[in-house]
Write a structure and sequence with these properties.
- It contains 17 helices and two strands.
- It is mainly α and 372 residues long.
- It has one domain.
- The protein has a two-stranded antiparallel ribbon with strand order 1-2.
- It starts with 5 loop residues before the first helix and ends with a helix.
Length: 372
């Protein structure tokens, strides 16, 4: 059992925030895979604009908080701004994730929302994702398959560049104050993203899409505030002096693939409450929020596989999604919104690779159907 303390309070706040996020996503249909699908298949950019607006809100919010020293991003989980710029991992992992989320009918976040709506296929996807995420994070699987990619990582600190945030890269090359440059770049990029998203009158008048972009972006900012904000130092101090140091007491916000692997680790020893972390609370909260919304709105429906081929496709997709998500240090939310908000160059590469992998998979499927 957990005693009431700052750690429990933080996890409870994460769970409550995640319940709200799950309900919002179930209500509005926010989906990163759907954003790419609508664009490729229908030429509809509505959900893409919602995704981009979420990026803008998260980036502007975190940039503002960091500029006045409310949050400390010196160390984060995952290490978005690491001075080791593993560009090949970001590109390969993002591409694999994009393929996987398309075959599995949605990213990690959408998988959780579908589970809350009664989709048993997504329960299977979650189980496969969790297995492969566990193998990638807690066994030698990752090192054996992808360890060679680390040889191509660029050690930025050897070239006088502190980390891979855009401000540090710019000032390392041209001089100046990285914090100041990060502020202006963050606000400038966020403004451009928001302007593009809001340029469409149809999007501005679509309450669901507009609200999902704002809401998801704010949820990411809230996650950063909870774990890197005013109470973060006291939270970390409590953890350091605990008899059993709890899992992942670090600055972080929403990401969904690595926590699935953490779920298997916790289920192997469910009496060890130190294994309960931000990610597990996020997984449980999103499912709960989606379930509550779907039940209240009468949308809860049991959905199963259409056949063996459908099951195999989802299994392959889930495996690709987990391997790619861990390799790239995040998913379409974990890198595409949360990571992007830190202005880490690797997050931008991952985002482009995810969209490319998803779009190519969709185009290939369309070509195959037309061929038949």
């Amino acid at each position: 059992m957990m005693d009431l303390n700052i750690h429990v309070e933080t996890l409870a706040a994460v769970f409550a925030l995640s319940v709200a996020l799950g309900a919002l996503n179930a209500r509005t249909g926010f989906c990163t895979m759907g954003a790419v699908s609508d664009w490729i298949s229908l030429g509809d950019l509505g959900r893409m604009r919602a995704w981009v607006l979420a990026m803008a809100v998260a980036m502007a919010g975190l940039t503002a908080l960091e500029s006045v020293a409310i949050v400390d991003l010196s160390t984060t989980f995952p290490p978005y701004r690491s001075a080791q710029f593993a560009w090949l991992r970001h590109l390969a992992g993002g591409f694999l994730f994009g393929i996987g989320m398309t075959l599995a009918s949605g990213c990690g976040n959408r998988t959780l929302v579908r589970i809350g709506g009664g989709n048993l296929k997504s329960v299977f996807v979650l189980a496969v994702c969790a297995l492969f995420a566990y193998l990638m994070n807690y066994t030698g699987f990752n090192a054996r398959l992808f360890g060679w990619m680390n040889d191509y990582a660029l050690a930025l600190d050897r070239h006088g560049i502190a980390d891979q945030s855009l401000g540090a890269l710019a000032t390392g090359l041209f001089g100046g104050d990285a914090k100041v440059v990060n502020f202006w770049l963050g606000m400038g990029i966020a403004s451009l993203l928001a302007l593009w998203a809001l340029a469409s009158s149809a999007f501005r008048h679509d309450i669901d899409q507009f609200a999902s972009g704002i809401g998801v972006g704010l949820a990411v900012v809230a996650g950063w505030w909870l774990t890197a904000g005013p109470r973060a130092a006291a939270w970390k101090e409590w953890a350091d002096f605990s008899e059993r140091i709890p899992s992942r007491v670090e600055a972080q916000s929403f990401t969904f693939i690595a926590p699935m692997g953490d779920g298997i680790r916790y289920l192997a020893d469910p009496l060890d409450s130190s294994l309960i972390n931000f990610g597990l609370m996020a997984l449980a909260g999103v499912i709960t929020g989606s379930f509550v919304w779907n039940m209240a709105s009468g949308r809860f429906r049991i959905e199963v596989f259409a056949g063996k081929a459908d099951l195999i496709r989802h299994a392959i997709g889930a495996g690709f999604m987990a391997v790619g998500g861990v390799l790239a240090l995040g998913c379409s939310v974990g890198q595409g919104i949360t990571g992007l908000s830190t202005l880490a160059l690797g997050s931008f590469l991952t985002l482009v690779a995810i969209i490319a992998g998803s779009a190519l998979t969709m185009k290939s499927a369309m070509w195959w159907l037309m061929r038949d």
